[in-house]
Write a structure and sequence with these properties.
This protein is of the alpha+beta class and 286 residues long. The protein has helices at 2-14, 28-47, 76-81, 86-89, 94-97, 100-103, 106-116, 157-171, 200-203, 217-228, 275-285, and strands at residues 16-17, 20-21, 53-60, 66-74, 120-129, 134-145, 148-155, 176-181, 186-189, 236-241, 247-258, 264-273.
């Protein structure tokens, strides 16, 4: 009697969570219907994502070695991105429709992610995409699910090409242009920094304040801080040091560089020499 009561109590407890009674399937048909519903809900969620998402499952040889992957699911964004249809994509092998994954070396990264269980994170992964008939730059995220990878990506080709165009313009400009992170560390500088006697490698990885005349640290720091806080600021004037230690007057223009979430991740600074202008002003004032 006590045993039956205990079983009844456990059964009651298993169906009540935080005071809410669960509606548990009574038959296999009920269970199948619930699973079908959950599958439809998951599919609708994935289809609502703006980024492409696919699931591909390992194809193994007789020795258990992964020789390919087969697409077992794809959201609408993935089908559209690959210029395909659901019937063409689902059940197809990765190497058959997108062989560029194998030739670029990322296929082996997929194999390692599935066999190790470690999340796959690839930023600016470059491969030839046959659907686009061009090289594409993508940020990739993938997780192991059973013997499959849940795989999503974001095409950043346009962003990469835009940045490259800006870099080419900056590298051929007479003004000095550099990029510094929010801590003030230089990550890129145009070759025109040679006008101050510096080589680009001299500046990379160092604080920009190593190159600012000490008396002008306050002006440059205040302007940079305002830009990082989201303000639009006019150009300011400050002195930057040549490699020989001589200060040179510069018109300093600072613009924010924003990441994918629209937060400011760096600043791009343009320096225009105004030594001659400052000298002319001084002469006029005398």
């Amino acid at each position: 009697m006590a045993l039956r009561e205990t079983e009844r109590d456990l059964d009651t407890a298993s169906r009540v969570v935080n005071g809410v009674r669960e509606q548990r399937p009574e038959t296999n048909d009920d269970l199948l219907a619930q699973l079908t519903f959950e599958r439809a809900r998951l599919s609708a969620t994935l289809d609502s994502l703006m980024d492409p998402h696919v699931t591909f499952t390992a194809v193994r040889d007789d020795d258990g070695k992964i020789v390919d992957f087969v697409f077992t699911d794809a959201n609408d964004a993935a089908i559209e991105y690959n210029h395909s249809t659901r019937d063409e994509m689902i059940g197809a092998r990765l190497s058959d429709i997108l062989p560029g994954h194998r030739s670029s070396g990322v296929f082996e990264r997929y194999v390692r992610a599935l066999e190790s269980g470690e999340p796959l994170i690839l930023d600016d992964s470059v491969y030839f995409n046959e659907a686009w008939n061009s090289l594409r730059h993508c940020d990739v995220r993938a997780l192991k699910v059973g013997d499959s990878l849940s795989y999503t990506w974001r095409d950043v080709t346009e962003r990469v090409e835009t940045l490259e165009r800006y870099r080419l313009l900056a590298e051929n400009a007479s003004d000095i242009v550099y990029e510094a992170d929010v801590e003030g560390i230089v990550h890129w500088v145009s070759p025109s920094c040679r006008m101050l006697g510096w080589e680009p490698d001299d500046m990379l990885g160092r604080s920009i304040f190593d190159f600012v005349y000490e008396e002008d640290h306050g002006v440059v720091f205040k302007n940079r801080r305002r830009v990082l806080s989201g303000e639009i600021t006019p150009s300011v004037e400050g002195r930057y040091l040549s490699k020989s230690g001589d200060p040179h007057w510069m018109s300093v223009s600072v613009k924010p560089l924003r990441g994918e979430d629209d937060s400011i991740v760096a600043v791009v600074v343009g320096l225009r020499s105004i030594d001659a202008e400052k000298e002319a002003r001084r002469s006029l004032a005398e």
